[in-house]
Design brief:
By secondary structure, the chain is an alpha/beta fold. The protein has a single domain (4-212), classed as TIM Barrel. Helix content is 44%, strand content 19%. It has nine helices and eight strands. 6-hydroxyuridine-5'-phosphate (BMP) binds at residues 7, 9, 30, 56, 112-113, 138, 140, 162-163, 165-167, 183-187. Substrate binds at residues 28, 113, 185-186. It comes from Stygiolobus caldivivus. This is Orotidine 5'-phosphate decarboxylase. One of its GO terms (biological process) is 'de novo' pyrimidine nucleobase biosynthetic process.
């Protein structure tokens, strides 16, 4: 099984996606695919039977607004991503209750991959994360120490990690540091041969995991 999540930030034809699906079994939708492809496109992509579809809207609002957004999209996604800095009461408490009732997952952003992110807020975000008790977390692959910290603090949670390829992290390193999945976008969809590159990335990741011998658990 590949430990890759395709960041679908571009509208790719369904026949290409069907072939990519042979190597990559999870996909992340974003504002870009929603705006460029529309709900009809996302509905067709959803039907390709991924192991997990994650809708990445980086929610950061009061509870009722976030719940209205996710309820409008609940048939198109298995999980959603929200920022954690928005806090618990009046925001993540009700969102988490709503998503659990709908049998949907929630991933909280704990550390981002870009240079300007400030990890000194982590103790604050960690406290919120403990209260929310979500399915998992987003932690940038460009921040290996943060992946190790979050893995140590939350041994049972799923860590999904962007920043691989275009943003500089090497394929497989985030997994070796304790993540469960690597999120990869441009390296795949910007290539002229997305299917071949998907297979190549999958094989590189497997080789790296074998080398570091840190096979992630199947956390639910
Ligand atoms: P790419 O492999 O093209 O850099 O794409 C990374 C994906 O992960 C994008 O969808 C981006 O929005 C997302 N992402 C990120 O790059 N850094 C973060 O800290 C959090 C993200 O969700």
């Amino acid at each position: 099984m590949s430990r890759i999540i395709l960041a679908l930030d571009s509208v790719i034809g369904l026949s290409t996606l069907t072939k990519i699906r042979e190597y990559i079994s999870r996909v992340k939708f974003s504002y870009v695919t929603l705006l460029q492809g529309g709900l009809g496109y996302l509905r067709e992509v959803y039907k390709l039977k991924w192991d997990e579809v994650i809708f990445d809207l980086k929610l950061a609002d009061i509870d009722s607004t976030m719940i209205s957004i996710v309820s409008a999209l609940r048939d198109l996604s298995d999980s959603f991503i929200s920022h954690s800095f928005i806090g618990y009461e009046g925001a993540l408490d009700s969102l988490m209750t709503y998503l659990s009732r709908e049998n949907k997952g929630l991933y909280l952003v704990l550390s981002m991959s870009h240079k300007g992110w400030n990890d000194s807020f982590y103790p604050y975000l960690k406290n919120i994360a403990e209260r929310v008790n979500p399915k998992g977390f987003v932690v940038g692959a460009t921040r290996p120490e943060m992946i190790k910290n979050v893995r140590a603090d939350f041994p049972q949670k799923i860590i999904i990690s962007p920043g691989v390829g275009f943003q500089g992290a090497e394929i497989g390193d985030a997994i070796c540091n304790g993540a469960d999945f690597e999120i990869i976008g441009r390296s795949i969809y910007s290539s002229n041969e997305p299917e071949r590159i998907s297979l190549e990335i999958k094989e590189k990741q497997e080789a790296k995991i074998n080398e570091c011998k840190k096979v992630p658990k199947d956390r639910k």
